[in-house]
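Hi C.,

You asked whether I'd gotten around to modeling the 622-residue construct. I have! Everything is below, sequence then structure, no commentary in between.
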Amino acid sequence: HPLLDMIVFGIALAVAVVPEALPAVVTISLAIGVQRMVKRHALVRYLPAVETLGCTSMICSDKTGTLTKNEMTVRRLLTGNGRIVDVTGSGYDPAGDFTGNGQVVEPDDGILVLLKAAALCSDAHFTLNGDKRELNGDPTEGAIVTAAEKAGMDPASLRAEYERIDEIPFTTESRRMTTLHNHAGGRIAFAKGAAEEILGASTSVFANGMVNDLTPETRERIMGNVAAFGTDALRVIAAAYRETGSVSDTGTGLVFLGLIGMIDPPRPEARAAIDKCRSAGIGIMMITGDHPATAGAIAGELGLLGGGRRVVTGNDIASMDDLTLRDSIKGISVCARVSPEHKLRIVQSLQSIDEVVAMTGDGINDAPALKKADIGVAMGITGTDVSKEAADMTLTDDNFASIVAAVEEGRIIFSNIKKYLMYLLSSNLGEIGLMLTTSMMGLPLPLSAVQILYVNLATDGLPALALAVDPPDPGIMKRHPRKINKGIFSRPVILLIVAGGLWSTLVNTSLYFWAMHTGRSTSEIMTIVFASLVLIQFFKAYNFRSDRNSVFKKPFQNRWLNTAITWEVTLILFVIYLPVLQNAFGTFSMTAADWGVVFGVSVTIIPFIEICKFFLRRRYRE
């Protein structure tokens, strides 16, 4: 061939073999996936994190507000004299009663002092928005203030009477909050927090209007009540006080006032999301600062326990060396009383056994664990700015189900990129195979340079973009997560690409020989091969909507693909039949018989790929 013709043809062939639309399609599919995630309450900060989401094999989730509603309601009180009182009502409505043995009772001094101390050691308050009470502050403190209102107290008047002059805020390390107040009798400090912390700092107990020594027997009884509250899925808060002039003196010598048990029911959708994770091969670990009994009770309701999986505490984790923790981590479903340091060790231990970890967090001190996790998940409602900055994804509704939805979207996006690549590379392989086969046989080229460029444009254009937004495979959340270091080109995928390319080469080369032996002109031969090559690629687009499911299972579900193929077929008809385009592309007007032959050989790609999928399904069962 003339040198200039070879150069032009070589450039056209190079353009045909390079998937130049790949960056655009990948970016568009990621961007569209991120938009879908936003609608499902998951905001992804970095596009590459979407791919990692699809590999997630372990989700470490906070309990409060994520697996539960974060709508606290005080249900039970224990006063210093051992009296247990139930509290009626729900949510933040101050209507409710105190009951004992099924009878309504008036709150005695023990109840009043307990609720007063806990309410004064809280920052939550309510505002009216029309007829609706809106909480400003922590839900736990909101429940305590509501219980104080049920006992007839006015929080605003109480805070005016006991002016706060100093405080030690709650931290995950101290697990308690302390406030110092001026009042008519001098200065008094109130403390509330984890029962173990408050009880450990107490030396006395307020019972029957008197302050008595806190005996070992009383301590044991109180801790027994803490466990009993927790078994009933109640979150337990203890309260105490000390008459002192400084909050720094409250590390010991407190007067124990009692326990407040509150319920935070599981989210209705959490159980279904956990079941979905199980079917997808994703493990779940609940991480909470609550008492082990409380955490275990909630985990039991959510179906996280069973099968030898157990509840451990932060102290248990701290007592294990790295090797012991790594060997034990797979058998742990619940981590209670944890600190941010424990979260970091959990992430490191899971990653050491090749788990891809999504870790939730909302506090400043959670940032290291969020950064270390493969996917850091911050809480959009309760999370701090530091935690959101450290995370890869933010939940706008703080809901565990949104994490699962994000993982599903990550899998869908990866699957769609794989579909596009299978379709495109198989089509390109068919083009190259046709050109190489005919060239090696010393035959005239079956396509002109402009026809090759157009075939590539039709392949890389709208059909490829349509596959990037293809609906998900029905069983996408019933497969085990892929390994994070495993690429798109698994053996079944490569075999399908090669099989599709070789069949396209065989069919179009055979059609080329047939057209040559029928005495047709060069223009007619090229047009027939051109039409066949385009049609066979359009059929491939439907074939490669899944690398495992049959093309006959909802074949036209992707409306964007249907529209794209319809439009491309229309353009091909224009190229073949419009005289002005016939001159540009070197085509001629095909007859109905020609179309019958072209359609007949092109459609054979469907049963061939179906047979390949059948054998691959049997050979490579997941």
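If it helps when you're writing up: The longest strand covers residues 254-263.

Thanks,
B.
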